[in-house]
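Review session, final week

We close the course with one last complete record, chosen because it touches almost every idea we covered. It is Serine/threonine-protein phosphatase, a protein from Streptomyces globisporus with 387 residues. Go through it on your own first, then we will talk.
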Amino acid sequence: MNRRTDIEAAVRAAPPHALLAALRTALISVYGALAVDLHLADYGLRVLKSLDRPDDEPLSLDNSPEGRAFGSQEAREQQVRHDDAVDHLLPVTVRGERLGILTVRLPQPLSTPGVALDLAHAADLLGHEILVAERDTDLYQRARRTSRLTLAAEMQWQLLPARACTAAEFAIGAQLEPAYAIHGDNFDWAADADELTVAVTNGMGEGIQASLLTNLAVNALRNARRAGIGIADQAALADQAIYDQHRGASHVSTLLLRFELATGKVGVVDAGSPQLWMQRGRLVRRLELDAQLPLGMFEESQYAVQEFHVEPGDRLMLFSDGVYDAVSPQGEAYGERMLARSIQSTRLLPAATAPRAVLADLAAYRGTETLDDALVLCLDWFGRQRD
């Protein structure tokens, strides 16, 4: 009997809403599990929420064993108090996208290193199946919410690719705030065998109008990108689509980057307010780019590509104006000095968690938990290993 194959077959045969139930039944049958639970990270990346016990108190990402396993992305084992059992805390992650933590309780005698590896495989399987199942059920998205999303936020979250992604050459993480009421800020990325394209957009205005504007811009950029054209023409075609719709009354600030995975050469189009910063070693600096017109401001705008290179170990961070224009209760702007300090203070964090840490620092600076629309994207460059 191949235990992994049996578990895979059971989970993949389950209805989209019953993945956890199918996995629980299989783990009880095959490994003698005493309990199997799944906690999913909420939209704000602050807590972990139980999938099938929504009324349970959420678990802190900072002050719980499950939260620490989520943050470290390492499987952990924890002895159950007053019981001869062990909890296995297993990250549920798909290509760098951190979904949550699977907890499997086993009797102590059955908790072996080989079984632990099988459980990690089960957590990986569950993550992939959840992403597929989300096309057909709202269960997993509902479970991530600590409060109701505004309609504008719902539209923006549905537009995103993920919150993190890893590959041999790079790792990306990004976060939007306020998570449950975002308006016009957005990020997007896509990679193939040869290149990675990253976009940060900021539609003007608030609420539904800002979200609709950003939706138009992101989909216009995707349409052009999927046609196989360069980022200058992507910007020009999106610019025309927005102008045709709004005749210059609304526009979108955009920063577009295209990375050659083999060489580290980067092309960039700066069409508006998002800022680009680089950390190389201990040096942190803002990359000064040639400012070009935001998308949709004028008819038939033309865009030019600038170039620079990234080296293995470099970190790039992209910020919307809701970050660097934020002010303290004393009226002092967050500005470049605080940005540089925040980048330095988060340099040891992985790309997937650095944006959340920057936004937490920003919230403390502002003296309020409620942020204006703010976006942080972090990209760590590893480069391609040469044979």
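Two points worth writing down before the exam:
The chain has two domains: 3-144, 151-381.
The radius of gyration is 22 Å.
Good luck, everyone.
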